[in-house]
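Ligand: flavin mononucleotide. Inputs:
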Amino acid sequence: MLRYLTAGESHGKALVVIVEGLPAGLTVLESDIGVELARRRLGYGRGPRMRFEADEITLVGGIRHGKTLGSPVAIEIANTEWPKWVDEMSPHPGHTEKPLTQPRPGHADLTGMQKYGFVDARDVLERASARETAARVAAGALAKVLLRHSAGCEVLSHVIQMGSARAKAAGPRPEVGDLARVDASEVRCFDGEAEMAMIEEIKAAAKDGDSLGGIVEVLAYGVPVGLGSHVHWDRKIDALLAQALMSIQAVKGVEIGDGFEVAGLRGSAAHDPITWDQGAGEYRRESTLAGGTEGGMTTGELLVARVAMKPLATLNRPSLATVDMVTKEATVSFKERTDVTAVPAMGVVAETMVALVLANEVTRKFGGDSLDELRRNYTAYAASLRA
Ligand SMILES: Cc1cc2nc3c(=O)[nH]c(=O)nc-3n(C[C@H](O)[C@H](O)[C@H](O)COP(=O)(O)O)c2cc1C
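Predicted complex:
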């Protein structure tokens, strides 16, 4: 089993993540993590924070001479902006001179203050903030390396909707070799025409001090047959993916395959026909309506999950009505540095969550204390399916 735990506040000294359950002998370079953290900063419409801050990685434990030891891997991501926040975020006794008392609708501020008994919304927003996803992305980088070197599986994503601008429904999907092209797009969109419309839409929202949401599609190529299980509700892979994706800040909908579309079709048109590929010696599904899962298990076909993100709730021109919690007077929510949209970055976080779920299931199914042992188990299983 692969387990991970993140800690740290948005403007704190550092984020940390500990990943337990990786086999020994997996080659992990600091750059594997750095590349993924840099991808999380991508996207037209990001706020100034993405330019100010850098992710400074320290590999604290679990890796020696570029290879995992089988012990927990600990990673620290320092916040280069920390010197500006030392007093405000100090862990030592004291208090803030500037409590935030005008909670933002659409954020954790008000309910978090009520639930935990805080009088300063910063005590909530520092952890609710999506800065925490940097720690997840670092863990996800390890999961991606494990998937690549065990089963040859790769996870990527592309933006298919930004505000009301949509990529063509029948357009080609990016394949593994297309990832650099997707990342080179300012909105991480594979459809050139839609990319232009998306950028225009972001520019218009930015001019109005407003924000945008959208949809990304996550694709996993080379997924082994049979991750997850039909036998119990909390082992079903589609359920595990939905939970992991819904845990991303501002994500409000998840679709596996064409889940919402097939609801309106007849049964005769709503399922992926099974065929036998004589050359490869394996069963195939002719389409991806079910998104590469059946009965709570991966089928070995392309895994497809779509993830819908709401428009961000902090606005550069604050206009959302709220109440000052001290005076109880009506006002508008306070301003905090914000993106116009973070849909392209959310795609990278969504890849992370899918990779972590799949990597966990790979370690559960194929086991092994070393990568060699895990690979032997995987190879024998894959061969048994072709027999
Ligand atoms: C990559 C990423 C970046 C985000 N950036 C912002 C932002 O700049 N401003 C904002 O208001 N919300 C941002 N969010 C969303 C908030 O963190 C989220 O809406 C808030 O924590 C409340 O959680 P909920 O929307 O899941 O209920 C971002 C989310 C992600 C995934």
